[in-house]
Structures are given as structure tokens and as C-alpha cells.
Amino acid sequence: MKNDYDAIVVGSGISGGWAAKELTERGLTVLMVERGPAVEHRVDYKNEMKSPWEMPFKGFNNPEMLAADYAVQSKGTNFDEWSMHHFVKDSDHPYQTTLEKPFQWRRGYQLGGRSLTWGRQCYRWSDIDFSANAKDGYGTDWPVRYADLKPWYDHVESFIGVNGTKEELIQLPDGIFQPHMPLSAIEQLLADRIASSYDDRRLIPGRSANLTLPKEGRAPCQYRYICHRGCSFGAYFSTQSSTLPAARKTGRLTLLTDTIVEKVNYDPTAKKVSGISCINAITGKREQFTSKIVFLNASAFNSVGILLRSQNDTFPNGLANSSGTLGKYIMDHATTLSVAASIDELNDRSYFGNRPSNFIIPRFRNINTASEQFLRGYSYQGVGFRANWKRGAHEAGTGEKLKNKLSKQGEWRLLMVAFAESLPVASNRIRLADKKDKWGLPLLDISLKHGDNEHKLLKDAAQQARAMLGLTKSEILASFDEPENAGSAVHEMGGARMGSDARTSVVNKWNQTHDIPNLFITDGAAMSSSANQNPSLTYMAFTARAAAYAANKVKNGQL
Amino acid sequence: MQNAKLLQRRTLVKLLAALPLVVSMDTFSVVEKNENDAFICCVAEALIPGALKIQPSKLLKDLVKVGWLGLTENSIAVVKHSLDSFKGNKYSELTLAQQRAVLSEFDECCYNSPDKLESQHWLLLKNGLLSLYFSSEIGASGTLSYHPVPGQWRPDISIAEATPAMYNDWLAVWFT
To answer: What is the CA radius of gyration of chain A?
Structure first.
């Protein structure tokens, strides 16, 4: 195996896969380094086809093992007995978090990273989002606007396949969509009631990276809703189904798994990075690789961690950190279950199949009018479904009567989860802890606390959700207005923010570090604000855009 | 000799599993020498007719050791004690009809007094037995409709077309 490449991509998840695809397709030789084991498409989705009775714990897992090894991961979405091997063992990968409400760091250390288990929701950001920092003064102004990213959103959506509807909303730009996955009967009922009662909001089908039409060797969705196990149909976007095959097809990709990047190496004479130093995760053997450029795509906080531990004489506080902002201004959407309700309408209607998406109510606060109570806004994602056999444990009943009842679908339920924008503040930060992991690398210490604005947003979200549900014949089962622990949205962002001023930001508008021209950060670390939309589509667009820029520079001998 | 006994017992269990649902509880005491196992079989069958076929005591034995779904051996012991003393007769020695009637009344009492210790343990055991049954091949594929690959999304159909409930409506499994 050779040790020198045009580019090194650290991480193989959503953005790493995109970096590898774009750079190889543009003619560069690429080494993609993944800290976890290989997971090959189809052959390694070991539990995908298993029925509950084939699982040791019938799909409900071993609580002793969860408490010992998966205390954080097991509380998250898409973690279950079938998919747990797509998440890290917390016991093997500790981190520090010192707050009363500890940060929930959900991770997947394997080829494909969290692209295997992500929620697949894809939303463009608008100029309302890219100009928010400039408008209210929190964070630093984005050096880009929607027009800069639009062609790259187009590029990404065309490749990954996103289903959705065109709505012509200024806060949620339309994209290039495959046919949408329609609302269920109860969701459509609520959508109609909202449309007739409110001018400022609407309930629309979610936009997700699940195919509704076949696409380049990938089959359309089979409506199983078990995406997180891995999908042999290739029906949702993951590194395995989409970007990795494209990168491999070029013949210019070298993939290295079970390899932890210890640090990015810096050449003070050339004032460039020269490559990476790695540790084999299994043998502990150390190795170095060199390249013309390095792309960090290790996930927002891990990319920051690599930079912090790559400190040297030139950058004593972390590589590319002349601004002193590295590790600061981290964010995660403040999220909570705004409402859960049972609905006593449409009792003669139901649905068939398991739609792997949801509905959304895009942000409606602070769009055309300004709230005096809070800045920015929130959106909802929700589902309407019928209760099933699990309800048998919640109500009295035994014998044939119970069995007959549970063999039929139960009442309609409707959930609405709010995602509120997280303001970028310097006190929310990552730093290196004194404790070290089993490879001798310092742990990350994560401190992220939702502030007053986030609390106000979620309070309003709960009130509005209850009001909207009040348009139906419903009974509120639960309604919360306090955020879950930070990290619960699994949308962690920031720590190496983008800005036009090298004194106050880490990367420029090309995701290129201000300090070191051949070092790029294109995962969530580079985000300067959080908006309220799921961020992965934007990571992909930024990555593709930065890769095109970097590849061009390499080919021209400028990097 | 030991193996021969085991074989006999296994054969008996298999034969029993193949029997129609109407099985006298006296038979359980022959098959399930362990009193607790016999109790689990009796309760499971009274709760969900046909549950005996999935061999609930055998399945539950290992699961309770790790506190599966919050269920422990203590929960079973508390419920057993409560049911044994509920009407003054040992539960396992009642006829199936009596067991069904007693369990129904006990269940009703537990939901009416959810703070009582026996109520909390019963709700755990009830949830465990329902989960065991409906995640079994018999329960999921038979009583419900297990579709490994639904293949389509029909967002608005008549409720008449939607029965039996799909086991693998995962949203409903997670959030009900």
C-alpha cells in the first residue's frame, strides 16, 4: 500500500463519502481513512432481514448490556437490537461532559459512519438562515448565501435522490425531488385543518433521502422502515449505497478502515499540512500518510478533536486555530416532544406499509413578522399512525377479548417533535480532557447548554402544537416544552466555524482553513449557525463545493 | 437415564404445543415440574389464548435474568403470590376457566390501583408476556400480519383492509 496521495479524507460518513466521491471523480487519488471496521453494502447488514423471533431479546434488547455498554447510544433514535452494532460502545469510546444534563453524543464508528443510521431528512437552508447571524448579532456572519449553495444542493439532491413536494416557501427552498411519500389520512386531515385556520404555516410531507423511483443500481423504497439496519435495496442514501460505489468506480480510491487519525501533520516551512499520523485501532501500530490536501470529515466534534490534538509550535492551541475560536460555538438543535395525542376521527381509515419519513411543519416564526419573545425559530417533524399491539399493556384486558382487540389496529396517534434553532455562543465548547482513551488519545470534554432563547422557542412550540392539535377531536397524551439533553437531536455542529474574517473564524467560504490553505473542514464542524433544519444535506452541498474548489487548485498546482 | 427423562419431557412439551388451545392446567403441572414455570404457562395462556405454544416459561427464563423489559424473577414471584392469594386458591391448581376469570379480575384491580406493588409487577409481567407472544413467529406472523417487505405505502385505506394489525409497523411498536 502506498503512503502518498493527492488527498486524504478523514472519515467515511455522510460528508466524508461525498469528499471521496467528488475528489476521485475530479481526478485525484484519495485515501479515505475510517476509524471503525469495514461494513460492506449488503453483505455486512447482518440483522437486516431478521424477524423479531430470531433476535436473542426479541427486538427489545438486553438492558444489562445497554446499561454497561450503550448507556448513551441506546437512548437515541434508530438504536435497537437489530442496529446496535452500527453505534459505538460507550464503554469503549468515553468522553467527558460536565453539565447537569450531560451531552448525548451519538456516534457510529464504522465504514459509512452515521450515514447508515441517520434520519434521512433533507432540507435546504434559506437566506433567512444564512443571514441570521448578521441580523441579530449572534455568531459570525456566514460568508455565503443561498445562491452560493443552490447549484450544489441541486448537484447533491440529483445524486442521492430526495423525495418531496414543491411548496414555494421562502424559508424552505424547493429542491430537485423524486415523487413524495404522501401523508397518511390523519396527517392529511390535520394538514387541511391547519391550512384553513392559519395563514402563516402549513403541514407538508417530509423530504427524505429515500428513493421513490429506481436510481443507478438502487431500488426504490420497500416501505419497511428499518433503514438503520442497512438497506440491501440501496433505497436510502448512505456512503455504502451511493458515494462509496461512485468513488470506487474511479479506481482512484484507497480505503483504510480500523485506522484512527491521531493528528494532522504540519510542515512549518511550507506552511501546509503534509498528511496524517494514524494508529491502527486493532494492533496499535502507528503509520503516517502524506498528501497534497487533507479533508476533515470525522464528524463535527471529532474533526475539532483532531485539530486540537494536532497542536504544534506554530499552532499551540490547536491546528489552524490562530483565531482562538476552534472548539467554540458548538450547537445542537433544542428538541422535544411538543405534543403526543390520540385522535378520535377517521376511525374508518388506515394505511399500509411503513413510510420511512414523516411530515413537517416548516418554521413560521420570525419569517414575515418579528417576535418580541425570541429570536429565530423552530420547525416540527411528526407522524400520524395507529397504535398497535403494544397498547395491550397500557389498558385492562385479558383473554380472547384482548387477543382479538390487539390483532386489530388501535386508535390514531399523532406526534409532533420540535427542532429549535440553537444560538452560537462561545461558552458552548469542546476541549481536550486530561483523561485518555485506550489508544492514549485525550478524551473530548463537551459542554453544550441550551440557553434562554432555545427554552422560549420550545415553550412556544408546545403551545402552538397543542393549539394545532386542538383543531381535531383529540386528547393530549403528552406535551413537553423543556429541551431534551443537548446532543439528543444528533445534529451537533460548529467548533470550526466558517467566516470571512480569519481573526474570528476557522474556515473561509470554501471550507478551507484561513491559516492553512491545503486543510479543509467540510463536516458539521464548519457550521456557523444551526438553523432549524436537519443539516446533513447542507454538509453534503458544502463538501461537494469545497471538493470541486480544492481539486481545481490541486490540478492547477496551487495546493 | 437422565437423558431419557429429558427426552421424555421434551417430547411431552412438543406434544403439548401441538395440542389445541383447550388444555387442562393439570397437564402443566405434569410437564412443568418447576412451580414457577407452570405458573408462567398458566398466566400466559389465560392472558393470551394460544400463548402456551410459544413455550413462554422457557423463553422467559433467560430473559428475566437480565431484567428484560424491566421484568425480574421478583416480579414473577410477587404476581404469583398475589394471584395465589387473590381468591384463596393456588392459581396453578385452578381450572383454565377459573384461571381466566381470576386473571381478568386481578388485571382489572391492578389498573384500578396502579400504585400498588402487585399492580406494578403485574403490568411488567403482562407487558413481557404480550411482547413475548407478539414477537414470536406464531404471534407476529399468525395473530398479526408480519410483512418483512411491505413493498408499498398506501396512505389512506379502509380500516377493513388494514386488519390484522401489521406487527412490523415500527413507528407504532416504538411509540404506542
So the answer is: 23
Q: Does the predicted model carry a pTM greater than 0.90?
A: yes
Domain ranges, residue B87: 2-145
DSSP A220: P
pLDDT per residue as tens digits for the range B165-175: 888 888 888 88
Comparing C-alpha atoms, which of A62, A95, A126, A449 is closest to residue A304?
A95
d(CA B39, CA B60): 12
For residue A402, the chain B residues in CB contact (below 8 A) are 47-48
The domains of chain A are located at 1-92+109-123+138-151+237-333+492-559
Half-sphere exposure of A211 (CA within 13 A, CB side): 24
Q: How many structural domains comprise chain B?
A: 1
Superfamily of domain A1-92+109-123+138-151+237-333+492-559: FAD/NAD(P)-binding domain (3.50.50.60)
Is the CB of residue A404 less than 8 Å away from at least one CB of chain B? no
Q: Do A354 and B171 touch (CB under 8 A)?
A: yes
What local confidence, expressed as pLDDT, does residue B167 receive? 86
Q: What pLDDT band is residue A255 in, cutting at 50, 70 and 90?
A: very high
Look at residue B144 and tell me whether its pLDDT is greater than 80: yes
**By CA distance, what is B132's nearest residue in A?**
A58
User: Does the pLDDT of residue B22 top 60, yes or no?
Assistant: no
Residue type at A369 in one-letter notation? T
Instruction: Determine the residue of chain B that is closest to A355 in CA distance.
Output: B153
- CB atoms A65 and B66 under 8 Å: yes
**Is residue B160 one of the residues assigned to a domain?**
no
Probe site for chain A from B96, B110, B153 (most A CB atoms < 10 A):
B153
Put simply, the answer to whether A352 touches B150 (Cβ < 8 Å) is yes
Q: Do A390 and B107 touch (CB under 8 A)?
A: no
Task: Please answer yes or no on whether A393 and B66 come within 8 Å at the CB atom.
Answer: no
The answer as to whether B162 is a domain residue is no
Name chain B contacts of A206, Cβ cutoff 8 Å.
none
Which chain B residues contact residue A64 at CB under 8 A? Answer: 66-67
Span A115-127, pLDDT tens digits: 999 999 999 999 9
3-state secondary structure A241-296: HHHHHHHHHCCCEEEECCEEEEEEEEECCCCEEEEEEEEECCCCCEEEEEEEEEEE
Tell me, what's the pLDDT at B8? 41
> Which residues in chain A have their CB less than 8 angstroms from residue B152's CB?
223, 352-353
Which residue among A58, A60, A350 places its CB closest to the CB of B157? A350
Contact flag A181-B153 (C-beta cutoff 8 Å): yes
Question: What ipTM is given for this predicted complex?
Answer: 0.93
Q: Is A387 on the interface with B (CB under 8 A)?
A: yes
Is pLDDT above 60 for B10? Answer: no
How far is residue B143 from each of residues A67, A449, B72, B75, measured CA to CA in Å?
33, 47, 27, 27
